[in-house]
Amino acid sequence: MPTDLWQQLLEKATRQVGVLVYGGLFLPEFNHRWVPTLREKALAGAQVELLFGDSEGKHIAERGDDEGIGVAMSTKILNALAFYKDLRDLDTIGIYYHDTILYNSIYRFDDEMLVNTHLYGTPAAYAPVLHLRRLGGGDLFDSYVASFNRVLGKKRAV
């Protein structure tokens, strides 16, 4: 996955940005423009929804054990959230916890998305990523949107 693709997709988005991850620490850690660009998008009217794994949730503990990193999974989430602290004052940005089994991490940018498929016992960074676009007549994109929305329905505030 080209590292600059994440930022390119974010910069093109105008209406909606959605991120569903356990931690997603790599985004703000390796891209100093990620969080400021999210702020710019929100100020321009885009709806931004960021869903992170609940660092105290049972599914996070299980994932940490599965990957052989234990409580480091919870620490990654808390580290990631620290990067987003300055976004909490904007009405068009929602930052939430979820405690669900995460079959895929989903990164939505209007009508494009990246889907990081999860492999048992493998860190997300080493699993395949699909680049999807909404196309007329197809429902794959909308299936992932529906999955994102189901998790959003189980959210709780950070």
Question: Can you put this structure into words, describing what you see?
Answer:
The chain has six helices and seven strands. With 158 residues, it is α/β, with parallel strands linked by helices. A hairpin with a 2-residue loop joins strand 4 and strand 5 (112-117). It has a seven-stranded mixed beta sheet, with helices on both faces. It has helices spanning 5-12, 26-30, 34-43, 58-67, 72-83, 140-152, and strands at residues 16-20, 47-53, 93-98, 104-109, 112-117, 129-133, 156-157.
Sequence of strands across the biggest β-sheet? 6-5-4-1-2-3-7
> How confident overall, as mean pLDDT?
92
Q: What is the first-to-last residue Cα distance? A: 30 Å
Structural class: alpha/beta
- Beta strand %: 15-25%
Helical residues, percent:
25-40%
Give a short synopsis of this structure:
By secondary structure, the chain is an alpha/beta fold. It contains 6 helices and 7 strands, in the order αβααβααββββαβ.
